[in-house]
Design a protein that fits this description.
By secondary structure, the chain is mostly helical. It has helices at about 30-50, 55-65, 70-80, 90-100, 115-135, 140-155, 170-184; strands at about 100-105, 110. It is about 60% helix and about 5% strand.
Length: about 180
């Protein structure tokens, strides 16, 4: 079912059993969602085995990753969009302070302790191992190509004005006009 370049491909219903000759008709949202759920579950399961959560890893990386030590509020603001809820990151900061993986200085800035840095390094190694499992059988070229396609789809969906990035109204207008013509 190969589609000629520039010709839209009909959208088929999501089919977990779709064969390799059918993927062009499969909905990207379904497969991206399924991929995100599977990869996230795999990573979180691996982290749970060492009594750490993915949001804890995010916080350790964020505290370590900037030019200046962040405040609690900055960490919360920067990571909440990734979290399962609006209060999760603040709770994670409290957990890491309790574990003594983080400390707060006199200016209310967060810093990794030696134990926190050791945990961050161990978790980075674990995340690298999980990535290797998830990427088995996928070349770097295939991975880069997939990311480029997904980035283009995001840009198209967000309507950045590039060719092919029609708004939903632009897409539906011809169908609505056709419907009005038929009913006259």
């Amino acid at each position: 079912m190969e589609s000629p370049i520039g010709t839209p491909t009909d959208q088929a219903p999501a089919d977990p059993a779709a064969t390799d000759d059918m993927p062009a008709t499969q909905p990207v949202g379904y497969w991206c969602g399924l991929t995100q759920a599977a990869v996230t579950r795999h990573l979180r399961d691996a982290m749970a085995r060492v009594d750490v959560t993915q949001p804890q890893y995010w916080v350790l990386n964020r505290v370590n990753g900037g030019p200046a030590a962040p405040s609690r509020e900055e960490v919360v603001a920067q990571l909440t969009h990734l979290a399962d809820g609006p209060h999760e990151i603040a709770r994670v900061v409290d957990q890491l302070l309790h574990r003594e993986w983080l400390r707060i200085d006199a200016e209310q800035r967060l810093h990794l302790t030696d134990a926190g840095e050791a945990a961050r390094v161990r978790l980075r190694e674990l995340a690298t191992e999980v990535r290797a499992v998830v990427h088995q059988g996928i070349s770097d070229e295939e991975y880069v190509a997939a990311l480029k396609v997904l980035r283009r789809m995001v840009a198209n969906a967000e309507g950045d004005g590039a060719p092919g990035s029609a708004t939903p109204e632009q897409v539906l207008r011809p169908a609505r006009q056709a419907g009005r013509t038929r009913s006259r």
